[in-house]
């Protein structure tokens, strides 16, 4: 009896101790975790609930994981700074963090394009592999560090469409004199063929197309393009967007703001960003298919780019990269790591992924 009484009382004591520990833990956390409020500027309008939505997704995750101690308020393009000035705002500390595509800033350094997408480069899975295990993240963080920025991948659109054109594109000659909204290095690659590239934020594209300031525009893919209404003013919809077989959207952090965060908050942000990376890819893959059907049903004319045109552009692209690498040491350092990885990945994907995809897609087309 005494032994049973002892065990019973010991059990109560252990339970009480466990309860005390459970109660005490949040109290300790509350005193050790500071209250922080940040602002995040985005390059995208609120109507784009997948790209801009990823910024909101991250802010919610961070708040939930810190019991509301770490609050990040998101601002759409133009609310604090214009769409294409987000990097500058983060660099100089106007905001603590920003959501933007790095290739918007190739005017500062063409090396930024590796972070988003290189024409005829890695596809989405390959890009993530390069970032996580192929040395890409380390290489790009060296580049961003020179701009007082720490960055984390925080979204990817997947392969993009080639864009909306007022007229058919039957050959390279049809690009001559064409004014097109297009991002990254591809504008410079196509300039020798007569294309006149334009850099515009997402919210500025439709008015420019409508007024005839531009003749064509690429943005992301069917789901976003439908929201932005491009099909109303340019009916020819081309594919593939060979300049973006993948398009990474990172979060950029002012270096001083990042370094002042507690390590636990840094970890929570990293986890939220990588989760948003998968979230964005999955959402676009889910929604683009039905959006494409609606666009074609509504009168959009779907066209592939001519193969000989793409072959000429691919040749021009890699000649352009070699030229850039010869004159830009920072570009060369990243290129020398990126290109062998690209070639290795293509060898593997030709065997497994393409073998599978080619068969099942051809079978589907025949049914």
UniProtKB/TrEMBL annotation:
Cellular compartments per GO CC: tripartite ATP-independent periplasmic transporter complex
One of the GO biological process terms: transmembrane transport
Keyword Metal-binding: yes
GO molecular-function term, one example from the UniProt record: organic acid binding
Keywords (A to Z) from UniProt: Metal-binding, Signal
InterPro entries given in the database record: DctP_fam (IPR018389), SBP_TakP-like (IPR026289), TakP/all3028 (IPR041722), TAT_signal (IPR006311), TRAP_DctP_sf (IPR038404)
Signal peptide: 1-29
Annotated binding of Na(+), by residue: 219
Top-level taxon: Bacteria
PROSITE patterns xref list: TAT
Binding site for substrate: 160, 181, 218, 244
Protein's name according to its UniProt entry: TRAP-type mannitol/chloroaromatic compound transport system, substrate-binding protein
Organism: Azospirillum oryzae
